[in-house]
From TrEMBL:
It catalyses: a ribonucleoside 5'-diphosphate + ATP = a ribonucleoside 5'-triphosphate + ADP; a 2'-deoxyribonucleoside 5'-diphosphate + ATP = a 2'-deoxyribonucleoside 5'-triphosphate + ADP. GO terms for molecular function: ATP binding; metal ion binding; nucleoside diphosphate kinase activity. This is Nucleoside diphosphate kinase. It is found in: Cytoplasm. Keywords: ATP-binding, Cytoplasm, Kinase, Magnesium, Metal-binding, Nucleotide metabolism, Nucleotide-binding, Phosphoprotein, Transferase. GO terms for biological process: CTP biosynthetic process; GTP biosynthetic process; UTP biosynthetic process. The gene is ndk. Major role in the synthesis of nucleoside triphosphates other than ATP. The ATP gamma phosphate is transferred to the NDP beta phosphate via a ping-pong mechanism, using a phosphorylated active-site intermediate. Residues 2-140 form the Nucleoside diphosphate kinase-like domain. Gene3D superfamilies: Nucleoside diphosphate kinase-like domain. One of its GO terms (cellular component) is cytoplasm. It comes from the Bacteria. The keyword Transcription does not apply. Its EC number is 2.7.4.6.
Length: 141
């Protein structure tokens, strides 16, 4: 089924010049880039985006990190792109993410800052819809 997902290239990925590599992997897999924008996240956007993690010990460092520099926000579309992109991204912690994945191949400096894992990808149809509306408020679906 054709789906849409929200991908973010996080501030570490943008700083390290990895936007192109992330987009290339999405495109090489056969997904389409439907929308793409470089943004500075507002506090409100981050609070909404990471609402499920509010109150967890890593929440504040995560939000601070996400506000530390520009983010590339992407809507990608394709057959099964929601789980498909998460499989391209790899495990949350880049020290255990498999080689061949974005986090496994490109991640570094872990342990103290697992939140620096280059990309975000929506984890369900509901999350994708909710998250696309946060980063592309004018999106009509
Ligand atoms: P994912 O990004 O793989 O969907 P998640 O939704 O569980 O992972 O967490 C969101 C982000 O929060 C994740 O990309 C990195 C950070 N994070 C998650 N668990 C963490 C932990 N135990 N310590 C530090 N940061 C964490
Ligand atoms: Mg998540």
């Amino acid at each position: 089924m054709t789906e849409r997902t929200l991908v973010l290239v996080k501030p570490d990925g943008v700083k390290r010049g990895l936007i192109g590599q992330v987009l290339a992997r999405i495109e090489a897999k056969g997904y389409e880039i439907e929308k793409l924008q470089l943004v500075r996240a507002t506090k409100e956007q981050l609070a909404e985006h990471y609402a499920e993690h509010a109150g967890k010990p890593f929440y504040q460092p995560l939000v601070d990190f996400m506000a530390s520099g520009p983010i590339a926000a992407v809507v990608a579309t394709g057959d099964g792109v929601i789980t498909g992109f998460r499989s391209l991204a790899g495990a949350t912690d880049p020290t255990t993410a498999a080689p061949g994945t974005i986090r496994g191949d490109l991640g570094r400096d872990w342990g103290t800052a697992v939140q620096q894992n280059i990309v975000h990808g929506s984890d369900s149809t509901e999350s994708a819809k909710r998250e696309i509306a946060i980063w592309f408020p004018a999106d009509e679906g």
